[in-house]
Design goal:
It is built from nine helices and 14 strands. By secondary structure, it is of the alpha+beta class. The protein has a single domain, classed as B-lactam Antibiotic, Isopenicillin N Synthase, Chain (Jelly Rolls). Helix 1 packs across helix 4 and helix 2 packs across helix 4. It is globular and about 55 Å long.
Length: 349
């Protein structure tokens, strides 16, 4: 199927009666099989909350540099907090953005902790438990924590609704994926600012973030109004995906591709840097299961199974790892080598 723009899906159709709900499920399944990306409207997230999130995000980046560096991610073994411009890598190249990373607010897992495992009761905790821990919040902007905590709750509910809808659309019970998110799910939020580096005359695009696939289950992306730069790969071409007011850009992560043997597609995407003199704020919400969770493998009907492409590899030719925590830890270590060197040198090499 050819695309020159991303499809727009209205999730409120789930409340429009059986025929409308069934049609939405078919559309959701087809779009995420063919391209893996779409715009989502009708989601019910209050516009007032969306506006507050964008506003507090921009105010974070307007803080004095000292306030941001006080919570720099080099102070966090969990890769939380502020990342300076150019200090995150994609495929070994510097992404030209600054950001704050926010995860679930939890206590650290001690290095010598033992996790109960019926098969290996004396086994030490897997390395991915190092990612559990507290966030770093800016003291000068306390409303960031309260706003993002509210945001997380709303988007968690929306993400679970989408997952249940996918399950039914793929011929499985609605609650098929629920167990992976029970107890200690691991959603991650980035608040990102891309300062403009693309020359406005030549318009040769500079890298905002390089081509990659998301390593979790699904992503809900909010981009401030009037901003472009996001591009999605489809059949060897790049599709522009500018922001649509009030809409989320939704995409499949690698764990959902794994669960469907490649029937649903985790798609390459990238962000081109804005032109010099402008910038771009975006807030991706990565809806992810517990670190020790494995997404259930769905048994597809023969008709759907014929369309399953098998599990693919990312641009570095790395396979998708079955346990979510292993997948995300691998990404963190290679994206933030400065943090990894300080806190996780034993895992490098």
């Amino acid at each position: 199927m050819a695309f020159d723009t991303l499809p727009i899906l209205d999730i409120s159709e789930l409340d429009g009666g059986p025929q409308a709900a069934a049609a939405f499920r078919v559309q959701l399944r087809q779009v995420t099989h063919d391209v893996g990306f779409f715009y989502l409207v009708g989601h019910g997230i209050p516009q007032q909350l969306i506006d507050r999130v964008v506003d507090v995000s921009r105010r974070f980046f307007e803080l004095p540099e000292a306030d941001k560096l006080a919570i720099e991610n080099v102070h966090s073994p969990q890769f939380r907090g502020y990342t300076r411009v150019g200090k995150e890598l994609t495929n070994g190249d510097n992404d030209w953005r600054e950001q704050i990373d926010i995860g679930p607010e939890r206590d650290e897992v001690p290095a010598n902790a033992v996790r109960a495992d019926a098969a290996r009761p004396d086994a030490a905790a897997p390395d991915f438990w190092r990612l559990e821990g507290p966030n770093l919040w800016p003291a000068a902007l306390p409303e960031l924590e309260t706003t993002i905590t509210e945001w997380r709750a709303h988007l968690t509910h929306l993400g679970l609704t989408l997952l249940r809808t996918w399950a039914v659309a793929l011929g499985a019970p609605a609650g098929t994926f629920d167990a992976a998110f029970a107890g200690h799910p691991f959603p991650l939020i980035k608040i990102v600012r891309y300062p403009g580096t693309t020359d406005p005359v030549s318009r040769t695009p500079a890298q905002g973030v390089g081509a990659h696939r998301d390593g979790g289950v699904l992503t809900l992306l909010l981009v401030e109004p009037g901003k472009g730069g996001l591009q999605v790969e489809h059949d060897g071409e790049w599709i522009d995906a500018p922001s649509i007011p009030g809409a989320f850009v939704v995409n499949i992560g690698e764990m959902l591709e794994l669960a469907t043997d490649g029937y649903l597609k985790a798609t390459l995407h990238r962000v081109q840097s804005p032109t010099v003199g402008t910038d771009r704020i975006s807030i991706p919400f990565f809806f992810n299961p517990a670190l020790d969770a494995r997404m259930p493998r769905l048994t597809l009907s023969p008709a759907l199974r014929d369309g399953a492409r098998g599990v693919s590899a990312d641009p570095t030719d790395s396979p998708i790892l079955e346990t979510y925590g292993d997948n995300v830890l691998r990404y963190r270590l290679r994206a933030h080598p400065n943090v990894a060197t300080i806190h996780h040198a034993d895992l490098l090499g």
